[in-house]
Every structure is written in structure tokens, then in C-alpha cells.
Amino acid sequence: MKVNIQAINFNVDRKLVDFANERLAKIEKFYDKIVSVDVFFKLENTTDKENKITELKLLVPGDEMIVKKTCKTFEEGVDAGADALERLLVKHKEKMKAH
């Protein structure tokens, strides 16, 4: 599985990249045919504390899953997004078994 990370409106630090790679590697347990995951970090210019947007785009053969989370930290966004992707992958796998 390939993880592509892009930061929009800021420079991403190494710790965040390592955290995202480590957390997203765990979703391979749920579905082994994952092609790639694209991670987009966006910094929104608002006075809100929750101004960090994390968008995860997961590619599996024949399907694409997108999860978008807005949180106080990017780490929190990656964690919440990965949890949502895990649930989506389990549903996808069950749907594939039904066919």
C-alpha cells in the first residue's frame, strides 16, 4: 500500500508524516487489496480551534473511499479518519463476499 501525503497552505513536519504512515499501515489488517491512500492536510484560516482538515482518499480495486475530518490537531484527524476508513473497509469486504 502506498501512502501519499500532501499539505496545503503549510509545510508538514516529519513527525506528522511518520504518524500518518504508522496509523494508516494498521488499516491493511482490515482489507489486503488496498492500492493507495492519499492524505491531504489543509489549514483553514478561521478563528475556530478546529481549523485543521484531514482528508483521506483510499483506493481499492473498483472503488474509492473518501473521509474528511475537521479537528483541533492533524493527528486527531488522521486517527478519526483511519477509524472511519476501517469501518468502510469492513462494509466493503462484506459487500464483496455477498456477490
Automatic annotation (TrEMBL):
Q: What is this protein called?
A: Putative sigma-54 modulation protein
Against Pfam families, the record matches this protein to: Ribosomal_S30AE
Tell me which InterPro entries the record gives: RHF-like (IPR036567), RHF/RaiA (IPR003489)
- As recorded in UniProt, coiled-coil segments are none
Q: Which organism is it from?
A: Myroides marinus
